[in-house]
Amino acid sequence: MNVVGNIGEKMKLTTNYNTEASFDFENKMKLEYTGYEDEIIKKLEAGNVSLPLSGSLIQGSQSLFGIKAQLQFGRLKVTTVISQQEGQASTIDVPPGGGQVSKFEIPVDQYEANKHYFLSNYFKDNYDNALRNLPIINSSTNISKLEVWITNKNSSTENTRDIVAFMDLGEYNIFSSAFVSQGTSVYPSDSLSNNLYNLMNTQYLSNRDINTVSQSLDPLAGPPYNFAPQQDYVRLVGARKLNQNEYTFNPRLGYISLNQSLNSNEVLAVAFEYTVGNTVLKVGDLTTAGINPPKTLFVKLLKSTNINPKLPTWDLMMKNVYSVGSFQIQKENFKLNIIYNDNSDGLKKLIICLCQHRKSIYQASLLSR
Predict the structure, then answer these.
(1) What is the rounded CA–CA span in Å between residue 300 and residue 313?
(2) Phi, psi of 10 (to 5 degrees)
(3) Which residues partner with 356 through β-bridges?
(4) Domain residue spans of the chain
(5) How do residues 343-363 score in pLDDT, each as one tens digit?
(6) pTM of the prediction?
(7) pLDDT in tens, 29-87
(8) Residues 6 or more apart from 254 whose CB is under 8 A from it?
(9) For the chain, how far is it from start to end, CA to CA, in angstroms?
(10) Quick check: 267 and 234 in contact, CB under 8 A?
């Protein structure tokens, strides 16, 4: 729709609206008042305005929304704009050879949330030590099998199972200590870390039926156990198992990276098998373990609908992964600066400069903790 309306000789209304416009600022609306030659008020504009400047030192702004006034007092001309800018200009430096050089500045709190998760608190606690002597990864674990389950928000019928996800499954430092007893091994394990999996397979075996889970576990929400739903466990009907092309995982460091971020009301759970030396350990039920439908799978809870920083699941979400919003970044001449604001003097200071030229990596730590 494109409408131009005149009200008398001085008022003019211009409207341009397109439902298929790529950006909101392409839809323009402006109310314009034009004064006579001998009037002080030459022009008043309200709506989508612009401020073009003829000089090259200071560039004018486009895509403004506000009020613009052009006044004249004899030979003195005044142009005033009160507005907000709905667009911004960016400059791309293309050196010889066709490569693109871009600069990124990301605040520390803008990490990729609800996308990267440790498989257990053991991998979170040993993450820094495992990477202390890069490029050598100091880890004795190697994950060989992994299945990832999420809330089936699309009502898909393929690769779906009923699951019950437990927060303390495979955890040595248990949260629900009134109901679950600590085991003998710090490594994540159904049988060694604690007795939760054994309880579900013996005393609470009825939970293999998804319809009876609430009847057997919800009464534990009060004293003396306080084993609460949406906190210690989540009952999920028809959960969807992700395809292997929907996530990546590090078998040595024990974390997964989803291709798409989860919503706050979505659940994430896993079951995996790994080796420590010659010992094979597992956490949760794999679909290849012989527990066939309609029996429920017991799996490890990584993210619940109850997002609480006081729960151990809060620490499982990695908060050290950032996206620069770009693809096909070349390793050669790559440079990364980690900077922080010093509260004592308010100045920005460089902590680490990581530079990569050709096949060599140079790292300089300029400030110590």
Answers:
(1) 10
(2) -110, -25
(3) 334, 361
(4) 2-85, 96-111+322-369, 116-316
(5) 788 787 777 777 665 444 444
(6) 0.70
(7) 888 998 888 889 888 888 888 777 766 666 666 668 888 898 998 889 898 888 877 66
(8) 118, 119, 120, 122, 123, 139, 141, 143, 274
(9) 60
(10) yes
